[in-house]
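Input chain follows. Return structure tokens only.
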Amino acid sequence: MTSFTIPLRAAAAALAGLMALGSAAKAQAPGALPIIRDTEIENLLRDYARPLFRAAGVGGSQTNVIIVNNRGFNAFVANGRRIFINAGAILDSRTPNELIGVMAHETGHIAGGHLARLREAVERAQIIAALGMIVGAAGVAA
């Protein structure tokens, strides 16, 4: 049993209680991502992430880990510096290393700049589509 196992179990128990209360979801604006704020759980996730961020060179103080009030086992990256982890990933992780592995995967997306490259590809596709519409409209007009 690692030194992280007991805090993970305590975090999962606290998180289950927060989800059952539903208070975190009610505090959100309509259409907003339902975020759970809990200092102890956030500090534990930062402890897990710190060596990952250091190894990946992504500037840990500028990278945030955010808990999403969702029961699914999932995580994703947004804005190039935010890792969103579903509460379900914390609840269903049997060991800290499972959760750390998920966080390492998302850290890899940040380090690889995958979100920035995707955004550039979408912008290029939009320009090509607009040019295609202009050419098509010119063809119809002719």
